[in-house]
Design brief:
Blueprint lengths: L3 E10 L3 H19 L2 E7 L4 H7 L7 H6 L3 E6 L7 H13 L6 E7 L17 E7 L3 E10 L7 E7 L2 H16 L5 E6 L7 H13 L6 E6 H10 L6 E4 L1 H14 L7 E5 L7 E5 L16 H13 L3 H16 L13 H15 L1
Parallel strand pairs: 1-2, 1-3, 3-12, 5-10, 8-9, 8-10
Antiparallel strand pairs: 4-5, 4-11, 6-7, 11-12
Bound molecules: 1,4-dihydronicotinamide adenine dinucleotide and magnesium ion.
The site of magnesium ion has 2 residues, from helix 8.
Length: about 350
Amino acid sequence: SLSKSYSIASIPADGIGPEVIDAAIEVLNGLAETLGSFAFNFTHYDWSSDTYKKTGKYIPDGGLEQLRKHDAILFGAVGAPDVPDHISLWGLRLAICQPFQQYANVRPTKVFRGTQSPLRNCKTGDLDWVIIRENSEGEYAGQGGRSHVGKPWETATEVAMFTRHAVERIMRFAFETAQSRPRKLLTVVTKSNAQRNGMVLWDEIAAAVAKDFPDVTQDKMLVDAMTCRMVLKPESLDTIVATNLHADILSDLAAALAGSIGIAPTSNLDPTRQNPSMFEPIHGSAFDITGKGVANPVATFWTSAEMLAWLGERDASQKLLDSVERVCEKGVVTADLGGTAKTADVTRAVLADIAANY
Ligand code: NAI
Ligand code: MG
């Protein structure tokens, strides 16, 4: 009999979300069956922009309490052409991240074997980063307001909020992540020349926390110069920590530099483990390719591997990633990576690799 069963909430939501989540569930179940040491019990939550259009809510009353029972949340993407993006983002994704205190957003990026970075001289191994994004406050704290709406003298404020508590916990998490990787190198990104309050607090807290991690090398960058360094010297970076807004932008750049937004995963972690953490591909609902069967499922496979690692199944996580990388290396890749495979072809190839190798 099985020793373990993980209870996973799946929220495929919008656009290509259901296509890539279906593919990931197939692969996760296949992996669990082959390895034989654990199983998954998926509960599907039909929360999406369609639900919102019908009921006026993304999450029904009591929904968060239902979610809280699970070991982890596997999320697709939210966003529909006929719902403003700030409504969908705040209605579903942030409505889970914020109350569940998923304060660490972790975004690993690397160039898979068999894929090509758009950077001319960047080979597999030259770009292997983990970006840690502060996920609870900063520029996305929701502070601010609008006055005199619609009048010529209308004003709007968007206030970035930084607390010692939140900056210190993300900084600690970032140093721990850097410490767990072979290079033990952390680049702290701010904009403390122009943003002279919150960003100076970041720099001060980074310097204080660094004292507890003498084996980690700390390196500092301003966010604008950081974009140049990512493009020109990708091999000089390893673990990176930045604010909610800065890391949001840098991690999309990172995904593009690694070859495609279709491969990059992201984890929204509550490192205290009081609430379930949420795992999702970095990409959005991609309505331009929805329903065509061509979405790259690799981002959601890698996302699933990150979820496995968080659940403590590190060996299974590595096996899944190795299978995905071998499939890329064989050239079974979707159009965004220059191939002709469809979502189902990549999924079948990963399942076949798992069955053949484990
Ligand atoms: P997007 O990531 O959905 O698409 C950007 C481009 O990348 C499109 O050309 C798309 O076809 C392509 N792409 C994305 N994922 C792909 C995949 N797996 N395979 C192949 N190609 C892929 O970003 P966009 O177009 O800015 O936003 C579309 C909607 O998604 C908006 O409503 C936006 O708010 C939402 N969104 C939601 C996110 C989330 O749920 N976390 C994140 C980003 C955007
Ligand atoms: Mg983003």
